[in-house]
Amino acid sequence: MTLSTSSSDSAQPPWHKVWAVALILSLVVVGSWETLVRQANLGPEYNDNRSLWANARHTLNDHGDNAIALLGASRLQYAVDVQTMSDAFERPVIQLSVEGTSALALLENLAADPRFRGTLIYSIAPAFSFSSIHPRIETGKQREWVQHYLGQSRSRRMEQSMRLYLQGLLAFRSPDAQLTRVLPSVLNTGSLPDRDQKTTFANRVLHKDYSKLSADVDELGMAQFYLENSVPYIQPEFAVVLNYMNTLVQLLRNKGVDVYFVRLPSSAEVKLIESVLFPRPTFWGLMEQRLDARFIHADDYPEMAGFMSQDGSHVDSQHIVEFTTLLIGALRENQL
Known about the structure:
- About 50% of the residues lie in helices and about 10% in strands.
- The protein has helices at about 1-10, 15-40, 50-60, 75-80, 80-90, 105-110, 125-130, 140-150, 155-170, 180-190, 220-230, 235-255, 270-275, 285-290, 320-335; strands at about 70, 95, 120-125, 200, 205-210, 260-265, 295.
- Helix 5 (about 80-90) packs parallel to helix 15 and helix 11 (about 220-230) packs parallel to helix 13.
């Protein structure tokens, strides 16, 4: 019996060695993949999703009395270098814009939040702010992200912070290095794909490399998109929207928040289409009359038009610092 028991014990595998070998192999595989992805310049980079946005929204709470909150769509994300603006005003600047949406849902959220008492800069993109395709209180992506932020538990926030930390640390967690993007390229070409044309930074600033875009991404293409996806409000509808916005602005002003509405530049065919669909006196002019805020329109600052990209709708990322400097000057002229 003793011999049998001894033989059985000696037959057990040395599990500590098995786990050690497995761990080493895993580290070698992950380390090799990380090195390969970094050498291909595919990361690290952030994914501009609701987790990164919610993290920025929580950051605003940490600086609510002094922060400058940026609300809008992609035009503001591509146009403002957050660090440059923060350095200029010596205040934290939080980028809360969301591509392809209006910012009404977030305006409502900030108006109701007693912690926010800083400065609010709202970028008016005519296709989103003046189009009846978007309901009075938008039910699209930005509202979904606000609801996601409001529903986060403390544990979920901790998990989110860890994911974002790893995303900024490890290249293989970059959106450009996802297997759904890498594998087709490797199978079809035998090599890793090039970096995507869009880069998202931790502060949610967006850069785009227009040299990587096809030649048909130009003013005509963007103008056609606006024609197909914009239905200007009729005046009674727009009056309802302005009444709603005025209520929110008054709530913000009662808390001591300075509110700025900014119309960023567009160019060529895009500007022509916007001027036809959304005439300045009919839309922007009524906002100036009805809302207790300060207003900055790019047409009043011709020098802002010199930094546009080939799509006619966004500032070229190569000139984001220069454009931000001009915008800072305009804001200072309006007492910010």
